[in-house]
Amino acid sequence: MIINPIGIMVDSLRLGLRDGLKKSKELGADGVQIYAVSGEMDPANLTPQARKELRAYIASLDLQISALCGDLGGHGFQDQTVNAEKIEKSKRILDLAVELGSNVVTTHIGVVPEDRGSAIYETMLQACEELGVYASSLGAYFAVETGPETSAHLKSFLDNLSTKGVSVNFDPANMVMVTGDDPVQGVYTLKDYIVHTHVKDGIRLRQVDPREVYGSLGFKPMSHEDIAEAATSGSSYRELALGEGHVDFGRYFQALQDIGYKGYLTIEREVGEQPEADIASAIAFINTFK
């Protein structure tokens, strides 16, 4: 029996920020996750007054921010030549999250190489160390989204960092769709790092190199839009409505309870022509486990 609060990725509703916030409340959410990379939610575009007004508006709806999304796309933090700029922007997104009452920013860091001695592995480690130290200084987290690598490999990478300021946003569907990893076992493997979760479902159609999905140096850089498009019509994997894919949500939710996770179950719907209806159905689906 789950007791976690339910969140909605506001951008999944495709209604704009204010209307999306209102609709999230109408649908019964406890909290929301918001993209904060570009447009009106880009930290550079939000004055101190605008931040206060936005926080007050969200509070007036009796909502909380479960997390901001700070995914900067491209090759994650694999490219040392652009990391200084990306790290700086990531810090500003985390500052914004804290100002708005959240301590989590979710992101993709790039596919962690299998070769722990590679230059890319070391570059990613250095970037995440800096981000993690900064997050810890604020009592906050950069939460790496699961999917590009197995849970065991991600854990071994995170274990190299000096703090838990870089932790995990657990997305079970990404694991099912891309690596074929077991999300239930993944919860137990990553139990010390999970600070936020996505609720999403899907199937894997064929084995695929995660670098072709998420981008990697030497591969085409992937955007959030590219990944969503592949989840709709791609030949490798398909995002589906909750309960229609291969995530065993009964066992998955039980695993989250077993490790004592009390944070958000945030619904992300990246595909489909009826996002509002799909998200309403997702809430109803989650509530069957309460």
TrEMBL record:
GO terms for molecular function: isomerase activity. Gene3D superfamilies: Divalent-metal-dependent TIM barrel enzymes (3.20.20.150). Residues 22-287 form the Xylose isomerase-like TIM barrel domain. The keyword Isomerase applies. The keyword Isomerase applies. It comes from the Bacteria. Keywords: Isomerase. This is Xylose isomerase.
